[in-house]
Design brief:
The complex is a heterodimer of chains A (57) and B (137). By secondary structure, chain A is mainly alpha-helical. Chain A contains two helices and no strands. Classes of the chains: A mainly alpha (57), B alpha+beta (137).
């Protein structure tokens, strides 16, 4: 039971950790790519445009 | 056996938990209704009928940028287009900023709003396709 929980926690933590290997004195630039969920964005866009059109009537 | 059952139930629970979290649709709301956004929305509501009229007349079209574009020779169309685009810009920028979407996110917001505007356009109105071509819907 404990082993299973440990494995899940390890997987979860691994997905959220950025490991930097190299010279600690050299700055490392990490370019974060933000992935936009188009479905969520579309829902927001429809909501706003509906509000504009319905609010005008 | 009891312990095995408990382990199995926990495994299924955790697996579904992680999967549903990964598959959930991210929402990008206007988290804060700033005075500027509120004003832009009110302006757009007040302008909506005039904008629709100009669209039906073929003087304004929905571009693939999420903004409107002048499609005919009309001073009214020019001023309505400028005002509408200014308000849309405020709303798009607020979505990008409040959801930390970055410069790439702004392009995505424009693309999605353009798609929604094309979908909402009435038959006969000018719309620009993603290819850049202008057509009558």
């Amino acid at each position: 039971m404990r082993k299973l929980l440990f494995v899940y926690l390890a997987f979860f933590a691994a997905g959220c950790t950025v490991k930097a290997v190299g010279d600690p004195n050299r700055p490392i630039t990490i370019n974060a790519n933000i992935v936009v969920d188009v479905r969520g964005l579309k829902k927001t866009a429809v909501g706003i445009e509906d509000m504009v059109s319905q609010g005008a009537r | 056996m009891n312990r095995f059952k408990r382990t199995l139930v926990l495994t299924v629970f955790l697996t579904f938990g992680f999967l549903s979290a990964a598959c959930a649709v991210q929402s990008y709301d206007l988290k804060e209704m700033t005075p500027a956004v509120q004003q832009a929305l009110e302006n757009r509501k007040a302008r909506f009928a005039e904008l629709e009229h100009l669209k039906r007349e073929g003087l304004i079209g929905e571009a693939d940028t999420g903004f409107v574009e002048v499609r005919g020779d009309s001073a009214e169309a020019v001023s309505v287009t400028a005002a509408e685009n200014q308000d849309r810009k405020i709303i798009y920028e607020a979505i990008v900023e409040q959801n930390a979407l970055g410069p790439a996110g702004y392009a995505e917001v424009q693309k999605v709003f353009a798609e929604v505007q094309r979908g909402k356009a009435l038959p006969g109105e000018s719309i620009q396709l993603p290819s850049g071509e202008w057509v009558k819907k």
